[in-house]
Specification:
heterodimer, A: 298 residues, mainly alpha, 11 helices, 0% strand, B: 120 residues, 3 helices
Chain lengths: 298, 120
Amino acid sequence: MSAVLTVLMLLVGAYLVAVLEGWVSTGRLRPAGPITSGLALLGRESVVPRQPDRIFFEVAPPLLLVAALLAAAVLPLSPGLVVVDLATGALFVNAALAYVMVALVMAGWGPDGTYAMVGGFRFLGQLIAYSMLIVMPITAVAMRAESLFTTEVVESQAVLPNAVYQPVGFVIFFLAAMGVAFLPPLDLPTAPGELAGGVMAEYTGWRLAVMRLARAVLVVTLAAAISVFYLGGWLGPVLPPWAWSALKTLLVAAAMLLAGRYVPRLRETHVLEWGWKIGIPLALFNIFYVGVLLLVVE
Amino acid sequence: MSALQQYALLFGMVVATVGLALSLGVISRSLGRVRQEKAKDVPATSGKLSPDPVWGRYHVRYYGYALLFLAFDMEMAYMYPWAVVYKELGLVALLDMGVFLMVLFLGLLYGWSQGALRRQ
């Protein structure tokens, strides 16, 4: 039951994100856009390139969707509304998100096209930059909650959301989440205008439709993760819990999409350099800071 | 739900997702097939096939980072169980992990000083 509800909420979220992304990038608000372009993609030819690694080529789009869905499955919408409340929830999110990289590298390698290959390997570099910045802030969150249950992580923020309690971790995690979802300033693997679509360059027709759906779901999943880990998930006055979760998730997704409008695309070199020279020392400091705070204050 | 049921549910979601992708493929195929036309299947490289294997076109210049990444990624496996029991153990936990992280951080600084953190 909760699985069906969660998937429905994810699809609605993906639709809204697609509308929003179109609005942000073209300046026109087209509420029917995602539906018409999705149907149009189904009606188009889906060409397979000349010398594909057929397994990689076919597996990549569904795998991206699976990774986003599995990560969303452990994130609670309200106390009862979570697909599976795993004892290893916070770790499971990382494990599922690791497959985003696998899917994109497969999508890059599979079609045997230059642009796709460059996009795939670039994303591998991007993973090396963002991965630690996803994992380390979540550790600090788990330290405060004394648990890896995502529901307990939310409950630990009843007094003060983690975004205020550990602001450094929040900022790092937010930026790293944009890296996972390859959203504009960090959209190195697709890089419109430079790589001809990158990892998505060789996908057409229904395969592209699956890939685009997966990307939209991934954005929603990461926004939900930020809301659960840092903004107190379903907690909030007046409105019912699920409404708070949905509202926070959508606002975070909108913020993630808007940020890219004002920042130019970063170079891979810079992403790696800043990730390791600034990001990781800050993330380690964040763990230490939270550790001291937990001992001194509570 | 028991742990087994939970993982069964997750597996069910994976199967359902793959089923969704396959059914989209079947629908698309029922609407029409790919017409065989000359050079339609050439990848996006301005209409010319690349003379060399395409993987030769990208140099993985971030291998210095990649090696450091391995060390840090392994370390994180220890961090999660530590984070859960942190409050219980208190200061001892902070000092234990502090020493461990300090060693790693010094490793990062050493790598930095030796030029691992740049485009090779």
